[in-house]
């Protein structure tokens, strides 16, 4: 029995604290089980602390990497935005240039179309060379007359197409020019015409060359089938 008691008797550690000087030495008795438990607790706490530190360090690294990635992405976006702004400015300038070109081209085309359209209105003087002032417009006859000299050219008053070349009982020949816009100009003179039907003419194209035999040239303009005063249109052209 005494041997069992000896075996069951817990083992202890003696802890001596020896202070400097003449102070008394202090002695403590520490059980082995307590030392083991304390050591295990310290190790457990250390493991937990180390795990927390490792985890925190990893999270910090992850956050740092994420921050670096976001920073790089921000720099890329900023750089891309600068490039896009420059490209947008260049495209805007090109657009302004194109718009200016188109506006200018449209204006020129409009002016050209306007000038082209005007050229088909018989506003020009139908004669060149030695000529008198035209007579007043006679509504009953529907025409005006000129006194012409030898060599005077009777010419088209506007662009168009010769639609008729026929003989005229009173004035020899009649030449009609269709200007394609409801205007028809009519020229009567005794000498043989220089043009034939279907001929495309421009303003100023010669129709007759006057001789000294016949001094009278008859000129008529019809609009939408009705005779109008040629003097009115000739004033437009100056």
Structure characterization notes:
A hairpin with a 3-residue loop joins β6 (160-168) and β7 (172-178). This protein has helices at 2-8, 32-119, 230-236; strands at residues 12-17, 26-31, 127-128, 144-147, 153-155, 160-168, 172-178, 183-189, 200-201, 206-209, 216-223, 226-228. The protein contains 3 helices and 12 strands; from the N terminus they run αββαββββββββββα. The protein is rod-shaped, with a radius of gyration of 59 Å. The model has no long low-confidence stretch (mean pLDDT 80). Strands 4, 6, 7, 8, 9, 11 and 12 form a 7-stranded antiparallel beta sheet that branches. A 3-stranded antiparallel beta sheet has the order 3-5-10, with no helix packed on it. It is α+β, with helices and mostly antiparallel strands and 238 residues long.
CATH topology of the largest domain: Glucose Permease (Domain IIA)
CATH homologous superfamily grouping of the largest domain: Glucose Permease (Domain IIA)
> Any guess at the CATH architecture of the largest domain?
Distorted Sandwich
**Number of helices, counting only DSSP H or I runs of 4 residues or more:** 3
Overall pLDDT confidence = 80
Q: Estimate the helix proportion, in percent.
A: 40-55%
Sheet with most strands: 7 strands, antiparallel
Could you give a short description of this structure?
By secondary structure, this protein is an alpha+beta fold. It contains 3 helices and 12 strands. The longest helix has 88 residues, at 32-119.
